[in-house]
Each structure stands twice: as structure tokens, then as C-alpha cells.
Prior knowledge:
By secondary structure, this protein is an alpha+beta fold. The protein has one domain: 4-Layer Sandwich (Glutamine Phosphoribosylpyrophosphate, subunit 1, domain 1), CATH 3.60.20. The protein is built from seven helices and 14 strands. The protein has helices at residues 51-64, 78-95, 98-101, 157-166, 172-180, 182-199, 247-257; strands at 4-8, 14-19, 21-23, 29-31, 36-40, 43-49, 105-117, 124-132, 138-140, 146-150, 209-215, 218-223, 226-229, 235-238. Strand 5 and strand 6 (43-49) form a beta hairpin. Helix 5 runs antiparallel to helix 6. The longest helix is centred in the first third of the chain and has 18 residues, at 78-95.
Amino acid sequence: MTWVVGASSILGYGLMASDVRISFGDGTEADLLRKCFRVGPYLLAGFAGSVQIGLHLIDSLQHALHNPDQSEPGAWRPDWVAEQWAPIAAKLFESAPSAEQDEGCQILMVGVSPNEDMGVPEFPRVYVTRFNWPDFTPSHMDKGSSVCHIGSGADVESYEAGIASFFELGSPAMMAGIQAGPTGSLAMIGSRIGRIVSEHPVPGISPHVFIDAVKLGSFWSGTNDQTQHYADGRKVEFKMPKVASSYPQFLALCQELGKASARAVA
């Protein structure tokens, strides 16, 4: 059970939001995994499905796009990356244990093009691309503003409508992006995502969310943490729990919890 969403803005930046809940093979759940990562200049990727396969695919993508000979690498073309990496992902999936393959895996990538724009050079085209098991053939969303969800949250109508509203012309988040760039809208979007999840809770989806944004030359990352102050002096903090950002870290947290990592699903 999971919720990962990628979105593109006509202003030349992309966004990805992801919750942190996973389901174990015994049916229990825990909030302990980051599902969205920087994978290359200037690309983000997230996953849903088998934790073992998903994290290995993310690691594969990160290593495929790493160039140690360039201290300041240029941006990768998202469409080219998708086509080149898809057969690699399919082979990795095929080589995974059959029990993990049974859980499936989806990858969502958000990347900014270095050579395409939205008709204005200042606003590059942003690709939102989905890969589905077992062949991971890339599917690109429409040019312009687009939103794509993977995981169980993809079927929650209120989530889809809520995220899409951030990128409508004239929306507060869009106006903040115009006035202050992606950083201006990131905090607003993070707060709104947290509100959507809390007002429409879904089993298997955590209210704790990472929000990542990217444009040519820059990345931003944040959470929907917040502190509420009450008239009686009480202070209630909503903070991201300790989470794993790699498969070894995930195995270590599973050991701390006394849980089997096999067939864990994000």
C-alpha cells in the first residue's frame, strides 16, 4: 500500500510526493520508508510495490546516471533515460525472487528536459513517466501540466483531484511558483497534501509525506511536518518518523522491529 505522485508544471519544474508506509508479509504496517529519490541531474524517481525490487531498481537508476568524470554533470534527457533504462529494469525484475515479483513494482520518474521547452525558453518541458512491471515500457504523460499516481493512492479520487488542483492556472500554489519559484509553492503544497491525507484517510497510506521538487540546476526536498499551538498552551508536533532511504537501512529497521523483510510492499 502506498501513494506516490509525480506532477509537471508549465513553469518548468516537477514535483513528486510520496508517503512512507509499507505493509509486511504478516499483514502489519509501519511508517518507515522513503520512496522518492534524486536519481540524476535533474531527475526524481519513486516506486510502489515490492520494497526489495523497488529499492534495487532505484539504485540501478542512480548508478546508471552517475558520471564520476564530470564534477558538474549536465541534465539528462528524461525521454532518452526512460528508453535506455527500461530493458535494464525488466531484467532486474526478472532476476528477482518469484515471491517478490508476485508483489509487482511500478516506477514513476519526473525529469526536466535540457533541450525541450514549453514554447518559452525560460520554461523547460518536464517529463512525468510511468514504468509498469514486468517489461517497464515507459509511458510519458502529456506535455504541459500533468499528474500521475502510482500505488493504492492512485485510486483515491480525492487525492487525484487535490493534487491536480495545485497545478491549475491561477491556483495559489501556481501563483506562489510564479512569484518565488518552486520553493514558494513547495511549503504550500506540502501543507495541502498533509491536509488532503488527514481529511481523507485511507488504510495503508501514511499521513507523513515527503515532497520533492526539481528544475534545471536545482532540487528541493521537504516534508509535511507541522506544529500546532492551542489557546491552552498545548503544542502538538507532527513530525516525520525515522525512515530508511536504502535497502540496507530498510533491513536494519526491519531487524529492530523484529519483522521479516521478505514480501514487504510499499
